[in-house]
Amino acid sequence: MRILISNDDGIASEGLRALAAEFSKAHEVYIAAPWHEQSGMAHALNVHRPIEVEEMPGVALELGAVAAWRIAGTPTDSVKLFLEALMDPNRPIDLVLSGINRGANLATDVLYSGTVGAAMEGFLHDLHAAAISLDIDADYPYTLAAELVRPFLERAVDGAAAPQFLNVNFPQRLASIEFAMSRLGKRDYENAFQQDARDDGRIFYTVAGKIVDSDNGPHTDLYTVEHGGISVTPLHADLTDYAAIEESRSEESASF
């Protein structure tokens, strides 16, 4: 396969390097990742602003990739720019990987995640895509997560009739190396903003807060990783509320 690897932690991140080195053992790998950390960028895209691009042959050589670029933009910029401008049209990409992220991307946090945003951009180009994350306090290295996820994704892509968009989360401690299909839970943050009043009168707020999980029962991604499993959640980009459409149609039919 020809694989594009991106992330939201920046091209120098340990997780990206582990993923690229692992997949380069068996596949044709390309890297296009943000210049600096871009966490929380979701699916943000720069418009009407020039985006600087620099090829990094040393990075490619070190990780066994065909080529690597650092992009002065968001995770989505990195993937979109590669697929639409940098990619050799005669060597199209089969799979877009984003990660391995430093920290989980679970439940409703996927809506804010730059890691998931980068993978989504690949999926929007009708490509297989996966966002991969590792608990920030994991007691095992990125290299192990990369070794485990490669055969899983190879099988997933090989057996898929249509492009897959997967969100993969590795737990703090591995109780099993099985990949468990999970649905998204619900996560929020208590006291999410901390105020910082400066001596000069300026006031700043920093996003922080205590995690509050309100939907973390069996079969959720939160439950899976809490119990040491590797969570896999199939995602899609269609936000249509089909139940509301059906309800509206039923009401229209009832009115005649």
Keywords:
Stationary-phase Survival Protein Sure Homolog, Chain: A, 256 residues, 13 strands, alpha/beta, single chain, two-stranded antiparallel sheet, 7 helices, globular, nine-stranded mixed beta sheet
Structural account:
The structure is a single chain. By secondary structure, this protein is an alpha/beta fold. It has a single domain (2-185, 215-254), classed as Stationary-phase Survival Protein Sure Homolog, Chain: A, CATH 3.40.1210. It has helices at 14-23, 57-63, 75-86, 114-124, 142-158, 221-226, 242-254; strands spanning 2-6, 28-34, 53-55, 67-71, 95-102, 128-134, 165-170, 179-181, 186-190, 193-197, 203-207, 210-215, 230-234. Helix 3 runs parallel beside helix 4 (114-124). The longest helix is centred in the middle third of the chain and has 17 residues, at 142-158. The N and C termini lie far apart (55 Å).
Short description:
The protein has 256 residues and is an alpha/beta fold.
Tell me the series of helices and strands, N- to C-terminal: EHEEHEHEHEHEEEEEEHEH
Assign the CATH architecture.
Answer: 3-Layer(aba) Sandwich
Biggest β-sheet: count, sense, barrel? 9 strands, mixed
User: Number of folding domains?
Assistant: 1
Count of strand segments: 13
- Please identify which CATH superfamily we are dealing with: Survival protein SurE-like phosphatase/nucleotidase
CATH third-level topology: Stationary-phase Survival Protein Sure Homolog, Chain: A
- CATH structural class: Alpha Beta
